[in-house]
# Entry
Amino acid sequence: MWRNCTCKIGPAEAIVNSRDRELGMHCKITRRDFLNGVAVTAGAAMMPTNWLAGTTDPEKSPDYYPPLLTGLRGSHPGSFEVAHSLRDGTFWDSAGKPEDTGEVYDLIVVGGGISGLAAAHFYRKTKGENARVLILENHDDFGGHCKRNEFRAGNRTFLGYGGTYSIETSSPYSAVAASLIKELGIEVSSFEKYLDRASYTSMGRVPKIFFDKETFGVDKLVDDPYVFPGGETYDLAVAGPDAWKRFLAEAPITEQARKDVARLCQEKKDYLPGLTLAQKKERLERISYSRFLTELVGVHADVIRLYQNVSFSEFTVGIEAVSALDAAEQGYPGFSGMGVEADALKYERDYFFHFPDGNATIARLLVRELIPAAVPGNTAADAVTNKTIYPKLDEDSSPVRIRLNATAVRVKHVGEVASAKEVEVTYARRDNIYTAKAKNAILACWHVVIPLICEELPDAQKEALASAQKAPLLYSTVLLRSGTAFQKVGANSIYCPYGYHTHVDLDLPVSIGGYQCPRTPEEPAVVHMSKAPCKAGLSVRDQNTAGRIELFTTTFETMERKIREQLARMLSPGGFDPARDILAITANRWPHGYASGYSTLFDKFALEGGEKPCERARKPYGRIAIANSDAGAYAYTDCAIDQAYRAVREITKS
Ligand SMILES: Cc1cc2nc3c(=O)[nH]c(=O)nc-3n(C[C@H](O)[C@H](O)[C@H](O)COP(=O)(O)OP(=O)(O)OC[C@H]3O[C@@H](n4cnc5c(N)ncnc54)[C@H](O)[C@@H]3O)c2cc1C
# Structure
């Protein structure tokens, strides 16, 4: 049957499948997919203009505003093809002669993520604000993983985070990173001021688990009695008052498993008695959390089934590939009687700030500091709502320029490395290739890209760079007509162990500057869904590779169908109708997501110590230095900042 979707479609567009109709697949929301290398856009209802098509300089259009784009974002079509053809060795076959822009800078930065922007900032601090800097970024927006998802509903703006969620950290921010955050006007300790805690608690929504029929025999939402860290880590995600009672009575797993969950989460027991703390840690770093639960805690197999994928949002792999020590440090249950501190969790709770668009506001604040005219305003709060003026990013009159949709394809010294006075950077933009020169270059892009664009680096360094791992992730942001279905089922976050997305969360209620979060269930709601496309049973590296391929080959249409289906199954007891209630979907795919650390389960040297591949990879070479969070093999914003600082020091110390 046709549901109450308000959009109009012609007969030719009608989707025949009746389940698709129920899900609302015929509704007019943006679907941007790639067919045979050509971007195809359909139903651009949420898209403000057609600036993507045609002109050579779309960024100069006053309508250019990527945060409002829906459909496939993150590594969006148009951003990665050049790099992939470099990888495949085909790029230079069809490349014409580069055009010399004649531009000469003090510094060219490759990569406009937090690390690249911070590098430009630190460089100007050292060299003065007249230093000329060009930042090249292959995406249509700056910020890298810090991605702003913006929606309009009626006359209101709603924000979501398409990537980096918050200022949070598994280890304390360095003095450098913390001072930069402060300098940008962010008082981390003031977060509570913006958090609408009262409205949140008064709504009575609690974390839930969605048990699915295929795995557990029945589709059922049950209170989650122990909320694992990850996803929404701030202390609002706590179990409801009756969570244990409900879980023990209602969870569709064996009675023994329910009891085991309670024992695991509530008992204070040392499962390695007789060992010193150091011996315990040594043992725990060599076994997976899954083995810890099975062999040391002795839980029923249903507990493993329940918690198998609980680690996806934090580690991007299941608990069979997470070391028990990492699990302990993150605050997973089972360790409270073992003397192993949950240090990582403690730091995350102590230093936390969530903007409605995540750390995209940090990127905007950095851009404001580099090019004031591009992000008007004076405070961190006003950067949340003040619109970025994209045409200002790349102006001849500005000492700092950010050039979007520009992929660096070659970085080399002009002449011999030892005596060179300049570096030449070649980049592809639209269908053309250009060169620009600078005294120095900082490569703040993904490490796997660097050997492809900087061939003159020593082979051992290129090998170390190429070995960098990136963990793939899908962050989908969905705008709902209202939050009433979540209200009726009494949920604010849902762990779906076997859903397409494993974590489904309503965003934290943060109102800041002119931005007002939804305060009542009747208002539109922003839902965040995350997926780690990993393949249990493989090494972490192989899981990452498989997941990356999956993300690159899944169309937005498939993602949309999965999102609609999943929300419908979880929320239909609350009256949810996907055809009526979904207003917009942005699927941020990150095939090259988190910078992966080293696993004590799979990376031999992680146990043995010695120089890490990331340390070999980030060595400066002549006038070229290397930044990015890959340089620290640590997927946090502070790492991207620290690595930028180090790279700038390396090229400015003489
Ligand atoms: C989904 C997700 C969620 C996260 N959540 C958090 C969080 O809550 N808190 C936290 O602290 N950290 C989080 N992180 C990690 C954090 O986002 C990163 O550590 C940090 O933003 C990385 O910044 P970066 O500049 O080093 O890299 P990136 O953000 O990846 O920026 C590098 C940029 O270089 C560009 N580039 C690559 N090659 C080229 C080329 N040849 N030419 C031009 N440009 C190029 C890339 O496209 C990219 O835009 C998250 C990461 C992901 C993926």
